[in-house]
Amino acid sequence: MVAFVSALPVSHAFSATPSTAACMTSTFIASRRVTHLTPRRVRPAPRMTFEAGVFETSNPFAAELKATAKYIASRGSGILASDESNSTTGKRLATIGLENTVDNRRRWRELLYTSDIGDYIAGAIMFEETLYQSAADGTPFVKILQDKGIVPGIKVDTGLTALPRTKAETATSGLDGLPDRCKQYYEQGARFAKWRAVMRISKADGAPSDAAILENAHALARYAQISQANGLVPIVEPEVLLDGDHNIDETAYYTERVLSFTFRALNEYDVCLDGALLKPNMVNPGTDSPNQCDAATVAKYTLQTMLRGVPPAMPGIHFLSGGMSDQEATENLNLLNTIEGSEIAPWSLNFSYGRALQMAVLKTWGGDDANKQAAQELLAKLARANGKAQLGEYEGPHPSPGGKVRNFQPLRLV
Ligand code: 13P
């Protein structure tokens, strides 16, 4: 008993006499169980110094991860998200009458990566197939990007699956075999990774449920931990969907709650935030909400939510476009970087856009190489507009023809 008591944390090893201790055995057991759930008590403080913390001494990639994250979050440039799965790419190609073949997907990515975007794009997220592909002249895509100063990245999740006993909520797959895949991607030249978790707001369905938030926070943290162990900067993407009729206060509440769970999980899994990036949604009202907001309100809510939820150690917050129109995505980003309070933002408020950078370019190309140059010039202008918006220096008119149209895409389960 004495040995048992002395093994307890100090707060429970009070001066019990043998007689009181005997009758308190059950209390000890109960309190020990509770104590067991308190990580600070069961995890001994590791030995560390300021220069050489746990992460720095245990991860051989530590310095590289931090440098890569900082580089990608550089002011004035952002991320081109071009990691759509073969199935999603096929749907996009179908809109311009192209068949979903390996070569057509390759041609499309070649158009993107050989555009003049190096001044405003610091990272490009690729799909696995694309990471191993080359341009028609035989130059690997990875080299084309690196030569422009663009860090190649890789989507490592394998898609969304239904989360049982929830109403149309999802978990993200891809943890099995992830360490080996990360090693191979690193060898191929990737230096950062992406994992997309998706949550939806629906009052009627009670979404997002705690089960969905917990599951997605856990998977994001485990993915981030594995990525960092294998030299890839994890982009942590907890997306709260734009779909729904909720108002902006509800989006702010759930986005903050999701961020809170996510960062708690990242901390529990010892993810080094200086070597990671965040990819959240902007705080918009649901697309079917009767209470739509102007860009200044969206920027105000988004900044407040990020200030409340994102630790300053993270170098960059790279928003997804999530269905916002091309113009909205640029204007909101510009306002975010100019509104009152943005001057104290400790991270770069940045972009990692897929649809807002690609859809108009795809349409301009139309699968016909006679239009390739025009499409590439448009992509360069879009990249520049968003790079300028990151600095709060964007001035219209927006380069996207039809730039006010929102770009929705239905969720796809694997
Ligand atoms: P959108 O900008 O089209 O939302 O895509 C970004 C992305 O990479 C989603 O995972």
From TrEMBL:
EC number(s) recorded for this UniProt protein: 4.1.2.13
The protein's annotated pathway: Carbohydrate degradation; glycolysis; D-glyceraldehyde 3-phosphate and glycerone phosphate from D-glucose: step 4/4
Catalytic activity: beta-D-fructose 1,6-bisphosphate = D-glyceraldehyde 3-phosphate + dihydroxyacetone phosphate
Top EC category: lyase
SUPFAM superfamilies tied to this protein: Aldolase
GO molecular function, one term: fructose-bisphosphate aldolase activity
GO biological-process terms attached to the record: glycolytic process
InterPro entries given in the database record: Aldolase_TIM, FBA_I
The entry's keywords: Glycolysis, Lyase
Record-stated family: Belongs to the class I fructose-bisphosphate aldolase family.
Entries under NCBIfam families matching the protein: FrucBisAld_I
Protein name according to UniProt: fructose-bisphosphate aldolase
The species this protein was found in: Chondrus crispus
